[in-house]
Amino acid sequence: MTIPSPRDGASADASTALKTDDQVPGPPVDDRGEGPGDVVLRLTDVVKTFPGVRALDGVQLEVRAGEVHCLLGQNGAGKSTLIKTLAGVHHADGGEITWLGEPFAPATPQAAMRAGIATIYQELDLVDDLSVAENAFLGHEDSRLGFTRRRSTAVRTREILSRLGHAEIPPQQAVRSLPAAGKQVVSMARALSHDARLIVMDEPSAVLAHDEVENLFRIIRELTAQGIAVIYISHRLEEIREIGDRVTVLKDGRTTAANLPARSTPTRDLVSRMTGRTIEYVFPPRRPAEQRDPLLVVEGLGRTGEFADANLTVGPGEIVGIAGLVGSGRSELLETIFGARRADAGTVTLDGKRITSVGGAVRRGMGMAPEERKSQALLLDEPVYKNMTLASFSGFAKAGFTDTNGERKAAERTAEALELRPRDVNRPIRTLSGGNQQKVVVGRWLLDDTKLLLLDEPTRGVDVGARAELYQVIHDLAERGVGVLLVSSEVPEVLGLADRVLVMREGRIIHEAPAGDIDEDAVLDLIMAGSLTTESILEGEPA
Amino acid sequence: MSALSRRRILFGGAAVGAGALLTACTSNEPDNSAQVNTNTDASANPNAAAGEKVIIGFSAPAADHGWLAAITNNAKAQAAAYSDVEFKAVESGTDAAAQRAAISTLIAQKPTVLVMLPADGKELDAAGLEAMKAGIPVINLDRAFPSRAAFRLQIKGDNFGMGTAAGHYIGQQLKAKGVTNPIIGEIPGIDSLELTQERSEGFKIALAEFGFKVANRRPAEFTADSGQAAATALLQALPKMDALWNHDDDQGIGVLAAIKQTSRSEFFMVGGAGSKAAIDAITKDDSVLKATVTYSPSMASSAISLARLIGQGKGMSDLVELQVPQEITLASETITKDNAAQYAKLGF
Amino acid sequence: MTTQTAPPEAPAKQQRRKLDENTLRNLGLVGVLVLLIVVGIITKPDLYSDPTWVKNNFLTILQQASAIGVVTVGMTFVIIGGGIDLSVGAIIALAGVWATTLATQSYGAGGMIFTALVVGIAVGLVNGVLISYGKLVPFIATLAMLVAARGLAAQISGKQTQVSANDTINSLASERLLGIPLLVWILGLVVAAGWVLLNRTTFGRRTVAVGGNPEAARLAGINVKRHTMLLYALSGLCCGIGAIMLTSQATSAQAAMANLYELDAIAAAIIGGTLLSGGRGTIIGALFGVLVFSTITNLFAINNLSTEVQNMVKGAIIVAAVLIQQFRYKSLTQLFKR
Question: Which residues pair with A249 in a beta bridge?
Fold first, then answer.
């Protein structure tokens, strides 16, 4: 067996990226790694483009039989696209994938499964009303002449379950009645029912309690002992240290470091490979906001199971940023402040008035650009101007009759101010790029006398050029005295835009600091490190 | 071929039925202003004298149509006229399953005789068998059971006969007027029902005797609004028409409305079933409706009378037989201005 | 990441295409109508050679489409708003029966019309409250209402056909104004009002927003629940109007009237270009949809063809319309992607 260096056959682009890694002091790329077996999967320069986005831009990955290979990267680094490409959901546009020595391009998820690659997604894709056995064999039922063979299915399921060390789960039990950990076992049973030789796990620990994670690790170890390879995705560094063999780091769709030893690579090195900037973020210069009475006051706000005891204020003209991972409760917090979710505890006041509903929030001058632009903010078939006036068309109307000309003119003015491209407000918004769609969503609130704007991941799916413009728009809003509360997974964005930074993890605001007093690595450590205390991170990396 | 043989049987049945009705009529001579005939004059008819007590169970589907409503009302009224009859009706829903359940409850109450109009003869065959096995004679109204053992007496209207009656009336009228190549329209009820097909078949055959045929046929759904729609379409398709048969007087309300809305009057119309409104209109003679062929819900009244006799083990006094016959098919009669007064009390 | 630019298409061209899509569909439906009439002329030249008959036939087609057309306008609103109303036929029956009880008839035509409209709105409101605030799926809520309203109608009518003795009501179906039947005037007014309501008022804008993206509408401060409720009330109001029209045509009402109107109305809305998933639809298209059905009925009647074949043709037209719509939608979005 030959183990080619990841650089072999790499494009000039990708190899420079890797070369930088080689030059980073610390552990070099370890070609031999710690994996015990043969290379089963190799990705060379894999590229995947979506309209307007280069999601994968030269990915290198090498997975060996019997190893746990961890994938690390920030949100949007391309991890999801990568595993979907392996699972046959997406198809690579360029580069080469070899699986068991053969070129591999699965046309469908079924093809990938047949080839022996099973994927366990973050949201477990089980059918609650079917039994454990039926779920395990869903899509490739054991049948004869169209009749399912229940007994032999049950026998085979029991076999797989005992292989997973969970012989106690009855194959006939309905999946609905299983706890989250049990459901995950069923997902794995499904993977094994395909005789998978590689199992991809996307944040498998996200839905599990602490002791259940231990059990998950035990199962993973048993699987790898049988020679099955595992690609493990997690944001929790301590998990990677415990279960992983090698780590590959992705950033902006590229591999920035490959085959690092999972246990011995210092956290700082991992983090710097996830963050080191290749894209210049252009943030407009900020004047410090004058200290005035806060516009928004949130006190003790909580929703069971989502977030608890949130306290924060936003002043007029102030930009407050919340940094946190998906699932940290940040989007839920924002939607609760906006009145779109009912608070279980605490209060939200704007200008001293309680906010309890979206209608009230909008009337009092609050606006929101939600996280899921397409599903939460836009009427995709409608023209730009109608999207722009979605929150204000009643204000234009006279006696119930809409004033489309007035709306169009106002929308044109806003489009001008936002440098919307194309400027034409009659186009269906579907035809605009992500960045320009986002400008429309933000612009929606400029038409009103909005005092406070809530922005949830405002630059998701927005290209670099449009980002800078959006930053300028947000900045201008603040200059005009609008308070902005911003949520982003991209730490530099929060740091560059905000006057004040709040860090959220697992439903709590764990840290608050002026933007100038905290740097990216420290925030990232706060977000990700499960077991580390704030102090130790700010002081430096413990051995 | 099978259609032909069925027709022959039906004709036979019609003949027998005509006889049966005739006897019933003659025995019911005394003036009787009630909607139904109650044969309670003991001096004229020994069967009228109160006999041993009879419990009559009754089940018919919940009415969605005037005719069905009249069936239930007639049965109730007829039973109330006898001092020796206890009437037990059950709420029977709108479908066969609900009625099956209702009949099971009835059987458990052990009535002397069971009168039922099944939602569907085939589907309730078993219910009839069950009752008969329990020793309760079953009188089937209108919709026949396939099993001979499922009923003691079958009493029904004659759908095929309705068609022939309407066809004969139209044929004779047109012949009398000397129309040689008449344009005849037909508005049946729900077209997928067997009874509709039988009616249309009878109509076609009777018209053929005169060398006539149906020029256009637009089915409605036994409701006035569907009758209006069908009639409007038919009138538009036939700018000139000589005669029209509408199968059902309930939907006929809509048919007449459509005719009025289009201000057409060059033809005459025959109705079906014999509703009170239709009979009134025929009497008044102020519309195109000149006749209607009966399919009378009075059969329910007769069924109760006969149930009583069966329960008491008596025969029909005008017949020689000591027991009530097994099958009675009512003749479809033609109500015109001339005899409308006689039928007024039978209208529903 | 590479920078991304919007599709390089001239704005004016864009606007024209958007316009084209609606007009194109309506032109297609007009084409179908013309085709049906041409088939009528070919198969029945003797009828079509009489100008009086042709004029009458045209008015008859319109008149027979009027009640279902009014109901379809309400249905179109509900579907654009992301819902469905399976109870329209039942609401017509209940409103019609309630308006023709002897007690109601004693109040005269005004009382009957008032009753029908109030009953329609009230039942629609019940639907709306169940769906908006009771969080029932529209399909289930209105299916339950279908059964219940017909049941109540049967209860009130004693299962009898209730004849309308009111000449004013009955004359609605026979009188003409400027040579055009009154019912056709009513249809025209309702369609015009529906068009204005959908395209020129905040109510219409909200309807599109609520159906197109309820979450976006909610986050824009629109009271989605209240609006959804009002949509069903609007559908109920249209049913009330339809009940009066149908009652005047049949000069009577009964619990079984307006049978399967829900299916005809939904089908007409869909072939008129309304997306069943909500957010898109036109009133004019829905009107054309109703006229296509009415014209087919007419064509089959004048040729004495069986209603079975007629129903098959109707089904085929519905499927074809949806297929064409999907195809056009796909090719359109693909165009924009490039």
Answer: A72, A257
Nearest residue in chain C measured CA to CA from A394: C202
Question: Mutate which of C18, C199, C213 to disrupt the A interface (most A C-beta within 10 Å)?
Answer: C213
Residues A261 and A336 in one domain: no
Average pLDDT of the segment spanning C208-218: 88
Asked if A51 and C5 come within 8 Å (Cβ–Cβ), the reply is no
Q: Are A29 and A63 in contact (CB under 8 A)?
A: no
The CATH number of whichever domain residue A372 belongs to comes to: 3.40.50.300
pLDDT in tens, C22-36: 777 788 888 889 999
* Radius of gyration, CA atoms only, chain C: 21
Residues on chain C touching A394 (C-beta within 8 angstroms) = 202
Distance from CA of A172 to the nearest CA of C (A): 31
Q: Name every chain A residue with its beta carbon within 8 A of the beta carbon of C280.
A: 381
C331 contact A CB<8A: no
Note the CATH number of domain C19-337. Answer: 1.10.3470
Sequence-separated (6 or more) residues with CB below 8 Å from residue C113: C99, C169, C244
Which pLDDT band, with edges at 50, 70 and 90, does A198 fall under? very high
Domain B159-294, CATH among 3.30.70.1660, 1.20.1250.20, 3.40.50.2300, 3.40.50.300: 3.40.50.2300
Quick check: is A137 in a domain? no
**How far is residue B34's CA from residue B344's CA, in Å, rounded to a whole number?**
11
Q: What is the pLDDT of residue B12?
A: 37
Chain C interface, best mutation among B64, B197, B213, B236, by max C CB count within 10 A: B236
> For residues A8 and A517, what is the distance between their CA atoms, to the nearest angstrom?
43
Q: Report percent pLDDT > 90 for chain A.
A: 13
Q: Which pLDDT score, from 0 to 100, does residue C242 have? A: 96
- pLDDT higher than 50, residue B76: yes
What average pLDDT does the structure give for chain A? 80
Mean pLDDT for A20-36 is 41
| ipTM of predicted assembly, 2 dp | 0.85
Cα–Cα distance for residue pair A306/A300, rounded to 1 Å:
13
pLDDT-based confidence at residue A123 (cuts at 50, 70, 90): low
Q: What is the DSSP string of C73-128?
A: HHHHHHHHTT---TTHHHHHHHHHHHHTSHHHHTTHHHHHHHHHHHHHHHHHHHHH
Q: What number is the average pLDDT over the span B85-101?
A: 83
* C51 Cβ contact list (under 8 Å, min separation 6): none
- What per-residue confidence (pLDDT) applies to C277? 85
CA B90 to chain centre: 22
C148 touches chain B (CB under 8 A): no
The CATH homologous superfamily to which domain B30-156+298-317 belongs is Response regulator (3.40.50.2300)
Among A350-359, B43-52, B181-190, the minimum mean pLDDT is found in B43-52
Neighbours of chain B (3+ CB pairs under 8 A): C
Query: What are the backbone angles phi and psi of residue A411, rounded to the nearest 5°?
Result: -65, -35
Residues A254 and A303 reside in one and the same domain: no
- Identify the domain boundary among A218, A249, A278: A278
Residue ranges, CATH 3.40.50.2300, chain B: 30-156+298-317, 159-294
Residue range(s) defining the domain that contains residue A303: 296-535
pLDDT at C269 over 90: yes
User: Where are chain C's structural domains?
Assistant: 19-337
Residues A372 and A429 reside in one and the same domain:
yes
**Cα angle value A249/A255/A259 (rounded, 5°):** 55
Contact C7 A52 (CB under 8 A): no
Residue B316 has pLDDT above 70, yes or no: yes
What's the whole-number mean pLDDT along residues A359-367?
Answer: 88
A510 and A392 together in one domain = yes
What's the total number of domains in chain A? 2
Cα separations in angstroms, C195 against A30, A390, A530, B297, C83: 70, 20, 59, 50, 19
